[in-house]
Design brief:
By secondary structure, this protein is α/β, with parallel strands linked by helices. The chain folds into three domains: 23-181, 3-Layer(aba) Sandwich (Rossmann fold); 325-476, Transcription Regulator spoIIAA (2-Layer Sandwich), CATH 3.30.750; 479-586, Orthogonal Bundle (DNA polymerase, domain 1). 30% of the residues lie in helices and 20% in strands. It has helices at 49-60, 73-78, 83-88, 112-121, 161-170, 183-192, 237-249, 275-288, 302-307, 309-322, 338-343, 350-364, 404-419, 446-450, 452-474, 544-548, 555-563, and strands at 28-37, 40-41, 46-47, 68-72, 91-98, 125-129, 155-156, 208-212, 214-215, 233-234, 254-259, 294-297, 327-334, 389-397, 426-431, 480-490, 493-497, 505-509, 517-525, 529-534, 537-538, 585-586. The strands form six sheets. Strands 1, 2, 4, 5, 6 and 7 form a six-stranded mixed β-sheet that branches. A five-stranded mixed barrel has the order 16-17-18-20-19. The chain is globular, with a radius of gyration of 25 Å. Bound molecules: iron/sulfur cluster. The site of iron/sulfur cluster has 13 residues, from loops. Residues 203-469 form the Radical SAM core domain.
């Protein structure tokens, strides 16, 4: 076991020794080690709520903005000089914690050794907070067990870190009571802390702000840390809208409403939907940030849709009307096996989840430029844009009661969705992490480890049999993906993603300059990624690599195209391809010599 975090109690003020530390003179460094929780994401290009709320709490407690420095862990790795801010601050706050496993392209979460180094480097007071309070694994991976460690920090916030920070500053850095913040506080802190986004390395263009609408959950799944926040408590629409307003003033154009267990339950009694609250939230956001470029969500509970289908349909319509295309409602089915469902207190059956998939497809599966009543649409006649809102499916392995049949049942569920003509935007398959305080902590990672081989085989099967054809249905050749941010090169291909919830990985032939954004058109499909060419593709300028990426164009045809340039029109080239080139290929008007 790791050493237990220190329990701190506030002394009566008159009992505090020495002179109080004046907030106006305090220098504070916030280090973001990133978070990934079941309902909260904060690995770049995302910025979680923690650094924003923490900065707001500091300002509210009297610390001047100019004395608050914010670094990401990647920022510290990239420039060792920044460690000086960790060393010299009067107060150093570390924020982090991964309570779901994942692999990330946009940033690398802090490792326990780095977190320990932060504590050792800090000459001032050090405080650690965020989901790290739930436990720390040896690595951020599935099938691991975790325990809580204090990693040598002076203080560990076991309630809300932003409340701890506020109280700590108010108490002259002497201590605080562990507590949760209330709605008034979070409303103020969210607005006042928006300025900190200016210091994020991805600011302003490649940054997406995770927004919180509620915490806690009405259900109690065995593996999940969300119920540790209690029953749901909602932030009223004006407080979220006010925060978006402030973030937008600081240049943020991309938003994800991701910090909640179930967006459909927003503003209701904890379980049933309240479409009026959803309308206020979504239309309010559009009003204060009319130029936003991304508005996506995360997490929708399928059981809400099944139990309140009419209100849910209305809620989904409101979301699809206000969001941006490519949005995903991630459903936590976790297992299609009734035995696993029973033993882990999962709240939705495969049949119910299928019903929810159907309803989201019918209400949100339309594409910009077409009649929403036609949803779900795919095939030759569908507009070449991503659908507005589709379900995603989360499946979790290593849960209590898991058996070989579990894998077969999950496959059968996915096949049924495909065969009956519905779309899934994403299938997420993971292995369980066991956290103290959840029911899974007794079982630990034992079942996940026993089933590792089975898991690998099944994952491959899902990728090949379902993901690939499903992706072709969701994003057929010619589908335009605007603003793909180019992130890295591999084997002569440039890879990038749009900003948004679970964006598709896009491979573009050739090595293009990184850091820029370009519009692309999909030409081919992998399991979870697409091949695309710049949109529109100019037949008079396209490279050989770009031309051969189009199905039906081999290298000899591509060579002929290049040799026979220029063309007046695409038809002039007389190409015989399986994809409709008119969707994305053009010819630049030829310059004429007078
Ligand atoms: S429904 Fe289950 S998995 Fe989802 S947030 Fe609630 S407890 Fe967690």
């Amino acid at each position: 076991m790791g050493s237990l975090a220190r329990v701190v109690t506030v002394l009566p003020l008159e009992a505090l020794p020495g002179v109080m530390t004046d907030p106006e003179t305090l220098s504070v460094t916030i280090v973001d080690g990133y978070v990934d929780e079941p309902a909260h994401f904060g690995v770049p290009p995302y910025i979680s709520t923690y650094p924003r709320y923490t900065a707001g709490a500091l300002v509210d407690a009297g610390v001047p903005r100019e004395q608050i420095t914010y670094h990401t862990i990647d920022g510290l790795r990239d420039d060792p000089d920044r460690w000086r801010d960790v060393d010299e601050a009067d107060l150093m706050i570390y924020l982090g914690g991964m309570t779901v496993p994942g692999k990330y392209v946009g940033g690398t979460p802090a490792e326990p050794d780095e977190v320990r180094k932060l504590a050792w480097t800090a000459s001032g007071t050090s405080l650690m907070g965020g989901p790290v309070k739930f436990g720390v694994g040896d690595e951020n991976a599935g099938a691991t067990e975790t325990e809580r460690q204090d990693l040598d920090f002076d203080f560990v916030a076991k309630g809300d870190v932003e409340a701890a920070v506020f109280d700590l500053v108010e108490n002259g850095l002497e201590g605080f009571n562990n507590r949760m913040r209330d709605v008034d506080e979070v409303s103020r802190w969210a607005r006042e802390g928006a300025f900190v986004v200016d210091q994020h390395p991805n600011h302003p263009d490649h940054l997406i702000a995770e927004l919180e609408t509620s915490r806690g959950c009405a259900y109690r799944c065995s593996f999940c840390t969300e119920p540790l926040y209690g029953n749901p408590s909602f932030r009223p629409p004006p407080t979220v809208v006010g925060e978006v307003d402030a973030l937008s003033d600081h240049g943020v154009k991309h938003f994800r409403i991701g910090r909640q267990a179930d967006i459909l339950a927003y503003g209701g009694d904890g379980e049933a939907p309240n479409p009026d609250a959803l309308r206020q939230l979504y239309s309010g956001i559009r009003e204060v940030a009319p130029d936003l470029e991304t508005l996506h969500l995360d997490n929708m509970n399928p059981i809400t849709i099944v139990e309140w289908p009419e209100q849910s349909r209305e809620g989904i319509r409101i979301i699809a009307e206000h969001n941006t295309p490519g949005d995903t409602a991630a459903f936590g089915l976790e297992s299609a096996d009734p035995v696993v469902q029973e033993e882990n207190n999962l709240n939705v059956s495969a049949e119910e989840c299928f019903e929810a998939v159907r309803i989201v497809n019918e209400e949100g599966g339309w594409r910009p430029g077409e009649d929403p009543d036609d949803a779900p649409t795919f095939g030759d006649d569908a507009p070449r844009r991503l659908p507005k809102l589709l379900p995603g499916i989360n499946l979790l392995h290593g849960l209590k009661g898991e058996r070989e049949e579990t894998y077969e049942r999950n496959m059968a569920f996915l096949r049924r969705v495909y065969d009956e003509g519905y779309m899934l935007r994403r299938i997420n398959i993971r292995q369980v992490m066991a956290f103290d305080g959840t029911d899974m902590s007794d079982t630990g990672a034992e079942i996940a480890n026993e089933h590792k081989k089975l898991f690998k085989r099944y994952k491959k099967q899902v990728r090949e049999e379902i993901d690939n054809p499903m992706l072709e249905r969701v994003a057929p050749p010619g589908t335009v993906l605007p603003d793909v941010h180019l992130e890295y090169h591999q084997d002569g291909t440039t890879f990038g993603r749009q900003l948004g919830t679970y964006p598709l990985l896009v491979g573009i032939p050739g090595e293009r300059a990184l850091g820029q954004t370009i519009d692309v058109a999909v030409v081919d499909h992998g399991y979870r990624s697409v091949t695309a060419v710049p949109y529109p593709l100019d037949l008079n300028a396209a490279s050989m690599d770009e031309l051969t990426a189009i199905p039906g164009i081999g290298s000899s045809t591509a060579g002929d195209i290049v040799v026979d340039r220029p063309y007046e029109s695409v038809a002039d080239a007389g190409l015989d391809t399986t994809v409709d080139l008119s969707q994305f290929v053009t010819t630049r008007p030829l310059e004429r010599v007078n």
